[in-house]
Amino acid sequence: MPGRSRPPLPFREFLVKVHSRCNLACRYCYVYESEDRGWRTQPVGMTPATAARLVLRIAEHARRHVLRSVRVILHGGEPLLAGEAFLARFVRGLRAALPAATRAEVALQTNGTLLDETLLGLCHAEDIRIGVSLDGPPAVHDRYRRDPAGRGSHARVAAALELLTRPEHRPLWSGLLTTVDPTTDPLTTYDHLLSYDPPALTLILPLGNWTVPPPGRVPDPARTPYADWLVQVFDRWYGSGSRAPRVPLFESVIDLLLGGASGSEVIGGGPSRLAVIDTDGSLTLSDHLKTTYDGADRTGLSVHRDPFDALLRHPGVAARQAGPAGLCAGCRACPLVAVCGGGHYPHRYRAGSGGAGHDNPSVYCPDLARFIGHVARTVAADFPRTARTAKAVTRTEAAVMAGRTPGRRGAEHDG
Predict the structure, then answer these.
(1) With 60 as the cut, is the pLDDT of residue 135 above it?
(2) Dihedral through CA 239, CA 240, CA 241, CA 244, nearest 10?
(3) What is residue 299's three-state secondary structure?
(4) Under 8 Å between Cβ of 302 and 278
(5) Is 273 exposed, middle or buried (0-12, 13-18, 19+ CB in 10 A)?
(6) Contact by Cβ (8 Å): 378, 236
(7) Which of 32, 35, 239, 292 could be disulfide-bonded to 296 (CB atoms 3.0-4.6 Å)?
(8) Are 301 and 308 within 8 A, CB to CB?
């Protein structure tokens, strides 16, 4: 990767693994079912001493870089397993440690099965926003999101969402997180998600790469099962106007097509501003890297010894802040790069001496090309000034799906 000439950007998001185990055994889980085995040696829960040290490190980083706000995401495993007392103490300690000029946004991503009135009371008291994972109706959700005994979790999640959608609790709810399954009916799934009236819907592609492809992502670039699914949902969403929830993926692609900048490393190639902290206080790279190889996210750094600035200097952070300069030659030459940004960093990985590590297009390249092309043509009908962009995108889309990505040989798209 070419050397970076500018200083690293400080972290603004801190994903905190407050508990390293889960009460579900989701079949696609990137923590427990991927190439990485690090969770086996992690403490089950973060200790009060580690939590106290962590909040001081976050405050130190905010003070050093004069951050106006930070976002702290309570994560796991299942973060609610950490218990109410720990969560309350952690959040209060965080806000007390931060500089007066730094605002803390605290969020919690949960599978929803443990959410009840008591925990919602805690979230009200400590101003914690709640995101819930739901993949669709029972037959879809329970296919993968089961407990260790093999029982589906949809009924328990639905009960939690019934609580969250009550007027007194709705301000706490940040939205739904849904993993796309291209074998399902997209509109049935979307309609079920909409039945809860979520404020936002975060659609994510399953974590996979060239060595371990996502389900249904085959070598033939003309087959785009994920784009086919997304296109149908996008059309329903776009046609609904103001009645539709926010869908960050769709909004980001439209913004980028209209010349905007990306605020995400998942689409558009925005620089990563995220640090991950394990239950033992280890400072790690994106936990999504666990799907590439064992130890891919580990840095050897810890809140007990190192400031977050030490993590900023790690090559893995540099790679995820490099923008276009960190992409392979084919991606840099591709007209779609201004929108796709090369795709999500873990999706580019290919193992082996000839695999080039992350110096590859996304394994989802054909799906991204087809989806972006469809959005471009749809938006061009409403924004004529984007028509030229839509034509260029369409030409590139056709080349990608024929295995002729600019700057690369077609064979290099083979999985």
Answers:
(1) yes
(2) -130
(3) strand
(4) no
(5) buried
(6) no
(7) 292
(8) no
Among 22-26, 35-39, 218-222, 271-275, name the one with the lowest average pLDDT. 35-39
pTM of the model: 0.93
Rounded Cα distance, 227 and 238, in Å: 15
Strand partners of residue 303 = none
Token pair 């996979």 is found at 208
Name the 3-class secondary structure at 129.
strand
Lookup result for tokens 């609580």: 163
Per-residue model confidence as pLDDT tens digits over 277-317: 999 999 999 999 999 999 999 999 999 999 999 999 999 99
* Phi, psi of 245, deg, nearest 5: -75, 165
At 290, the amino acid letter reads K
Peptide bond just before 77 cis, omega within 30 deg? yes
Residues 254 and 262 sit within 8 Å (Cβ to Cβ): no
| Tokens 């218990």 belong to residue | 83
Q: What is the pLDDT of residues 230-253, one digit of tens each?
A: 999 999 999 998 889 999 999 999
Our measurement of the distance from residue 54's CA atom to the centroid of its chain's CA atoms, rounded to an integer in Å, reads: 22
**Is the distance from CB of 327 to CB of 268 less than 8 angstroms?**
no
The 10 Å CB-count burial string (b at 16+, else e) for 35-66 is: bbebbeebeebbeeebbeebbebbbbbbeebe
